[in-house]
Write a structure and sequence with these properties.
There is one protein chain. This protein is mostly helical. The chain has one domain: MetI-like (MetI-like fold). About 75% of the residues lie in helices and about 0% in strands. The protein is built from twelve helices and two strands; from the N terminus they run αββααααααααααα. The chain has a two-stranded antiparallel sheet with strand order 1-2. β1 and β2 form a beta hairpin. The two termini are about 40 Å apart.
């Protein structure tokens, strides 16, 4: 018997496709249009070809910001992924502690990005901030406004505080989905705690870890609000990531052509790296 297909379901998807077209595709086409043209005002545009892309790729400004982005994302992933796994492994699986821990883990994720930046901006100030004042009282010369190392440490600690909970919740969901039969078999075989983690828990968490890895990479690589609020890209340009540089170029300098070219290059880098990470991790998962 030949199977029939009901194509009426496409009518339910059509409003979503129209919404995506207006909210994503059309603005993207506008950016593409600006990236290949130049304007001298009065809404008069002139064909520029790929000159803006060449200017961006040949500038030290772009490569310095890209290096800072990659370094920041690498540090964030190296801290948050292992820390999230560790916390999830030690969270209770039964009893009253489960909802309490889940609520506590969810609280940082509910705070808007600009509020997080404001909290840590005040928290780190030496005159009125609890962290800055405490470190100063201990004799530690801490100043995220003037010291590059302090600025980076502040941003990293802030991001870890804000987003580690996401990794924890994803890992915890993977852990609670493991049937008790696996643990009972491991107990009968006399498996060590490390063996249980290596051969039972970690393989079962691979898919959620892939999601956590990709989400945290994209979020950290596109970070804008928090460092802009806390450091404004300073001291100097030490915390000026690609997102901040893009806004400065588009709004501060009103260089629409180079800004559009930079935004497209930025988008392609995120897309390429995410695809590489996804391919590598899925291939390794398939081999195991």
């Amino acid at each position: 018997m030949e199977k029939t297909w009901n194509n009426k379901a496409w009518f339910m998807v059509l409003p979503v496709l129209v919404l995506v077209a207006f909210s994503a595709v059309i603005p993207l086409m506008t950016v593409v249009n600006y990236s290949v043209q130049d304007t001298f005002g009065n809404n008069q545009f002139f064909w520029a070809g790929t000159s803006w892309f060449s200017d961006v790729l040949e500038s030290d400004r772009f490569w310095d910001a890209l290096t800072r982005n990659l370094a920041f994302s690498a540090i964030i992933l190296a801290i948050e992924i292992p820390l999230g796994i560790l916390i999830a492994l030690n969270m209770p699986k039964k009893g009253l502690g489960v909802p309490v821990c889940l609520v506590l883990m969810s609280l940082p994720l509910l705070i808007p990005w600009n509020v997080v930046g404001t909290i840590w901006q005040v928290f780190g100030r030496v005159d009125i901030g609890l962290l800055g004042y405490t470190l100063a009282a201990l004799g530690i010369n801490y100043n995220y406004v003037n010291n590059v190392f302090d600025a980076w440490v502040t941003l990293i600690v802030m991001d870890v505080w804000h987003w580690t909970s996401l990794v924890v919740l994803l890992c915890y969901a993977g852990l609670v989905s493991i049937p008790d039969a696996y643990y009972q078999a491991a107990k009968i075989d006399g498996a060590s705690r490390w063996s249980v983690f290596r051969y039972i828990q970690l393989p079962k968490m691979k898919r959620v870890l892939l999601i956590a890895f990709l989400l945290r990479f994209m979020d950290s690589f596109m970070i804008y609000t928090e460092p802009f609020v806390v450091t404004g890209g300073g001291p100097g340009n030490s915390t000026t990531f690609l997102s901040i540089d893009l806004v400065k170029m588009a709004i501060g300098q009103f260089d629409l052509g180079p800004a559009a070219a930079l935004s497209l290059i930025y988008f392609l880098i995120i897309l390429l790296l995410s695809w590489i990470f996804y391919t590598v991790m899925t291939n390794s998962d398939a081999k195991t």
